[in-house]
Structures are given as structure tokens and as C-alpha cells.
Amino acid sequence: MEEQNTEAKLKTRLKQEKIQLWNPPYTDDSNQPGAQHMQELAERYAPLLDLQVEEVGGALEAIRVQAVRRGKGNKTFRETNVATLELLLPRDSKKDPKKKDHLETRLDVLVQEVVDRIAEEFGLKHIKLILNGKTLSTDQRLDEQGVKNHSKVMVLKVSDAEWRQQVSEEEEKKKNQNESLQRTEKGFQILSERDGSEETSPFLEIADQRGNPLKIPHTEKKALILAMGFHEKGRSLMKKKQFENALCHLLQADQQFSKCGSALLRSVDNFAVLQLDIVWCYRALEALSCLDDGKSRLQRAEDCFLQCYGEQQQRLLMIKGNTGREEALFLRLYLLQSLLSYIEGNDAQARHQLAKVESLYGRLCLDSEKMAQLMALGFTDREARLGLRACQGDLQEAAIHISNQRQEREELKQRERQKRSRRLEGITTLTELGFSRKDAARALHHADGDVNRAYEILLDSSRAAQMTNNNTEGVVSLERLEELLYLGFDRVASEAALRLTGGDVQSATQLLLDNQGVLPPGLLPVSPPSSSSSPSPSSEEPSTSSNSAGMADDAELVNEVLEDISRHEEDYLDLTLEEESELIATMKAYLTRGPAHTV
Fold it and tell me: What one-character-per-residue DSSP string does 173-184 give?
């Protein structure tokens, strides 16, 4: 990382002074360095960077050689489509430790072909290639996996035993990863379609920070639930340090968020937290060569936080009453920004961001004694951590805050139970009027829980179905049907009786009484095909063994994805800061480095 930092600083100065090392007097006609001018440049830059002349000279020569090679490579690529790749070989396999190794190849070839060439040229038996922290699949082409002209590809050695195991594990891993993505998507799709009509079936609602349901168009709601589902699964995998698999799920979440309207994304912080998590995975996978993507994601995260929380977090203060817990997100944001600034060679910006990080870290680090006292009162470590941060470390205030939060959560649960109970009562009322449970639930959902409005919706739907019904036995009058339903007869039998009696209520009533309300099969007319919009019970599928198996599979999927959803609404704020502490120490070591005394 230090070499990257030095070269980045030199490139910035060369660009500012418009110095082109690949042209005379720094490079002659035979592409050799202009020794005198390169030495003068090194001597001039060394004190400015507080480095030895030899170190600066070596870095300048590396930049010059890279520029010359890049120029030749660009020309070759334009003329022949042959790309030049920079190989980051294992140290013991490099022919010259100070020289960079390259490979020329077309990009439309399989990775396996390149693996074979590298293995043969450098005497390596089994290897794998890494680009931006991801292993390249040997059965796919280079260009299909993002390899471009001048890409840096890492070469890792693999032993015979490891190779056999790797082949087996990669196949299993790929299978499991794809299966995990598919199961996560299907599980949350099922949940996104549920409306709470079944008392024992879990369903999801999108709520604001106070637990109030948000009214969102169905398509956006479905995308948002899928996005949040993939995000939760990714976060679960991050906690297990499975960063590569986590990244796959997080990128899927990003795709789903892109289907949501910009107004929705500006009103919730989920999207910003996702961007942070993706870049944190880049860091864990040492894939910070994804620099441009990382920078843009951090900028999106910062913009989204400002939109959601307010310029001075005044909106967050108004909603939650404090801002202490969210500061952990800003700590991670500033820390990643500092890291990327350093890699770009911008030490001043890196130090500026790191200073903000250390200031936040000082406030967010907790007194272990206070943590122990709160946990002795019966609070969890998460509650204690979030409570102390919310109250700036005040023990008494934190205890009161946690107790209040527990009470608010219990009141919210009670409201949800009451709401669900009212919904179920409404569905029962509508089904007693002869409508199917599925149609009643759908109508009640569209009516925002208003039973009378839901009844009107169902009647309108029934009238529309009657208008389009071309049954040869005539159209049943809805008013006459309701008279029979009021008397307690079954809807299907009532419709059949009215058709048989030409719509005469008296005759239909007598017919039903004579048959104890159930018409013999011989008297029943052939049922017309039912419409999905019709509220009649015939629209429900019969229960079969295959349906039961499907329902069992759905239940298993739902339970599986629900395991990854934290039961605590502020889990994403509960950062222990252990990983952050390690990265802070690393950044301080790099940024406080004194003048170099060795090359």
C-alpha cells in the first residue's frame, strides 16, 4: 500500500506540472530513461515527499516504464485486439523482484487458456487468478469477467491437495451460492405477496422509524422487500466473515433497490447502509482496486445520509430524540473515505477524514464498567451498547432510555396484534357474506382495513364478473342472490337455484329448502370458468397433496429467510468497532510514517 501511495503522489505532481515521462527528455527514442533528467526530477521531488532520493527515483522509473508499456500496449490493443495484463506473481516465482511481469493475450479466450500459459511460462503447477478480489472462473472468457487491457491480475499458487479440494469446493461453493441467492429471492418474494390474511402465516410490512406502515406502490414494495431481504442475508454472512458470498447478496440487494423510486430511497437510510456494507466487503476482500466504484458508492451513502438525517442530523434528532447510535455509520463512512484517499495518494484528505474518525471513535468507545452494570440490570449487550451511545455514555440516562425503548417496542407489538386481529375479524365478516377468504383479504388490503369499503369493492368486482358472464342459463341478479345469502344459504347453491328457477327468489328458496340448502349433483348446472377477479369460492384451488407439499416448501423457505432478519430494528447500528479499530491503527501507521531511511 505504501508503494501505491508514493506512486499516486508522484503521478499527481507529474500531472500538475504536465510532465510526460514517456516522452523526451525522460525517455529516449529507444524507450530508455533519460538518466540525468530522471535524477534531477527525483532530487527535486524527494524533499517534497519527505522521502529518500533513491526511493523517489525508483518510483519514478516504475511510473515511466509503466507509461511506456501502457502506450505500446494501447497501440497493440488498437491494432490487434491483443491486451496486456499485469501479473502480480507470488514472490518466489518472480524472475526479477523489482520488475513487473506482463502477459499479452486476447480477451475473448477462456481463462483456462491463460492459466495454462502462465503456469508453463513461470514454472507453476496449479494456480488461480484473482481480479478485484474475485477468483476468475476458468470456464468463462476473460472479457466476460471484467478483464480489460492493462488489468492487474493476481496469481496465487495452489498445492496438489489444495487444488483437488479447491476444484471440489468451487463447484460446491458455486452451487451453494446460486442456491442461496435463489432461495433468498423466492423466500422474500413469498413474503412480499402476503397481506396478513392468515393468522398463522408471517408477512412483512414496510414501516418508518416509528413503526408506522408506509404506503408504497405494490411493485416498489415488492422490490424494496427483496432488496432489504438480500441486504439482511448479506449482513448475516458478513458477521460470519463470509465476505465473498455476502458481496453476492449485497449486489443483488443493490439491483433491487434500483427498481425503487428515488423519492423512496431518499427517505430511508437502508440504501446508504447497503453502499457502506458493499465497500466494507471490498476492503475485507482486498478488492480496493475497485476504487472508482468504491468512491461513488461512498458518495451515494453520504448523500443519502444527509437526505435522511438532515445536514446537521436535525431530522434524525426530531424523529429519534438523539443521534449517538447513527454516529457509528459515519465512523465507518469516514474511515473508508480515509482509506480510499490514502490509496489515491491524497494524504491530506486521508488525515482529515481519519481525524474525524478518531473523534467519533473516542465518543463511541464504551466504558466496560458501565456496560457490565447495565447488563447486570438484565439488559443485553446490544441494548447496553446502543443505549450508552444514544445517551453519550450517561449510565442513568441509558438505563431509562433502554427501558423506554422496550416499552415502545411492546406497545408497537400490541398495536400490530390489534391491527392483525381487526384484519382477521374483517376477513371473517366478509367470508360470512359469501366471499372467498382470498378475495376478502385482497379487498380489505386495498381498502386499508375498512370493511365497508372492502365490501363495496367486492360487490363491484362481482357485478363486473356478472356483466361479462355469458352463461347460457342467464345472469343471476345480485340483489336476488343477496336475498338468499341473507337467509343463510350457500352462495354457490343459491346461484345455481336462481339459474334453475329463472331468477325467481320464491321458487329458488323453496328449491333450496326442499334440498336442505344443498342441491343434488343432478340439478347443478355445469359451472362456468371462474375469473381470477371473481370473489366466488370456486376461484380457490382445491387442496391436493401437491399443493400441501408446495405449501410446506414455501413455509420452509420463509422460515429460512426469516432467520437472517434481526429481531432488533437497530441491529445495523450495533457495531462493536473491533474491525474499525484495527483499520484505524493501520491507517495511523501509514499516515504517521517518518522520512524513509532505506530503499
Answer: HHHHHHHHHHHH
